[in-house]
TrEMBL record:
This is Ferritin-like domain-containing protein. PANTHER family: PROTEIN YCIF (PTHR30565). It comes from the Bacteria. InterPro entries: DUF892_YciF-like (IPR010287), Ferritin-like (IPR012347), Ferritin-like_SF (IPR009078), YciF (IPR047114). It holds the Pfam family DUF892.
Amino acid sequence: MIFPDHPSPKRLQDHDNQVLATLFLTDLKSIYGTEKEMLDILGLFLRKEFSKDFGKTISFYASISNKHVENLETIFLLVDNPIKSIHGHILSAVSQEAKDISEDNDSSPAIIDLKIYKLLSHFNHYKIACYSQLVAVSDKMGLTDVNGLLRENLHSEQKMSEKIQTSESLLTF
């Protein structure tokens, strides 16, 4: 229950299809962990040297990721589950790559920009796939309030993909 006097609109534990509910909750925890990790990584990148325009892209992505985290925390409340994240193998590998980039003091700023661009693209495509899956599952489960928030995150992630592609053209060597 969200508040003592306001029960959840649809508890996952009470859903007819528990396999689908378990898949949804696992994917929700996974994308939440990804978004939280993304914020940490973007913080590391904001301390690196890069072109001014690319720096704006990174700052913008951080603001989008913050909004995604807020939406995901709301979803946890709506489905009456504790806020929790899980980390998979893909996230661990990408996070390690981000840490390596943030500690790279030997490469030129242009090469750092290129490495960051590649990593942001990987994260972005992964997140689009995760949100697409969650939208499909929440739609199948009839979680309309949840579905709207997930579609909002998916849409902003797709817009971010366009911005990242535009930023690639700003990289100078």
